[in-house]
C-alpha cells in the first residue's frame, strides 16, 4: 500500500462518534495511533470531560494542555488534550477581548454556566473551536503543527447538533467575535478536511443509531466518514454447518459419532452429553451470526466505507490499541 493509498487522504480532522458502549474512545485512540505511524504527529482530543483517553492509555488524568502520551509504529507521536470548557472560555475572552484576568474573576462566579445558559450551543463552540485551532495551527516555519487531529466526540445521538455550530449560535450574534469564531469553526468542520466516523457493533440499536446519525449529518451538509465495526468475532464454523444449525437441521447424533471416533468421549452416554452441549453452542453461534449478517446488510445502506475491528480478548490495553491500529491501517482507513 502506497503512502497515499488510503480512504481519507487529505482529511486532517477525524471526528469519532458512536453509541455508548461501542468502544468509541478506544477506536479514536487506535485511529490516532494508526494515523501517527511512520513518523507523523497526531493530536487526540477529548471534549466530554470523562478522562476516557487517560483511562485507555493508562495514564494519569490529562490536564488542559497538549501532552505526548504514546509512540506509534515507525516513530510517530500521539499527543492528547482534554478540553476544559472553562479554560477554553478564558482563552476566548483573552483572544477576542484581551480580558483574561477579568475572565478569571468572572469564572469564579460561574462565567461558563452563565454564558452557556443564555447562549445554548456556546459550550460546543468553545470545545470545537479549540480542536479547530489545532487543525489550523502552524509553526514559525509555516508547517502544520499536527499532521492530523482526532476528536473523541459526543455520542451519535447529539453529534450533528454538536458539530453544527453555526446554527447553534445563530440566535446569539449575527456579527462580532462570537459569529466570526463560529464561522471559523464551521469552516473547518464542514470542509473536505474533516470526516465524521461512526463506531458501531453488529447489534440492532447501535446499527440503527449509526444509520440515523449518517442521515442526520448528510441533511446538515456535514462530512460523513467511515463506519468502524468494533468487537467483530470470527465465524468459527463452515457456512454449511451454520446454515444447518440455523434451520434446526443440525444432527447432534452425527456429532456424537464424530466425538467417539476422535477419542474425545469415554462412551456413548458421554459422547451424547457432549454433543448436546456443543449443538446448543453451535445453534447460539449460528443465531448470532445470522443476526450479525443482517446488521451488516443494514449498514451497507449508509454507502460509507466499513472497517472491521477485532474483539480484543485480552482487553483494550496498549497492546490491544496497537492491534486495532494495525487493523485500521491494513484496511486503508489510515
Automatic annotation (TrEMBL):
Molecular function in Gene Ontology: ATP binding; ATP hydrolysis activity
Annotated protein name in UniProt: ArsA/GET3 Anion-transporting ATPase-like domain-containing protein
Classification via InterPro entries: ArsA/GET3_ATPase-like (IPR025723), ATPase_ArsA/GET3 (IPR016300), P-loop_NTPase (IPR027417)
Limits of the ArsA/GET3 Anion-transporting ATPase-like domain: 13-170
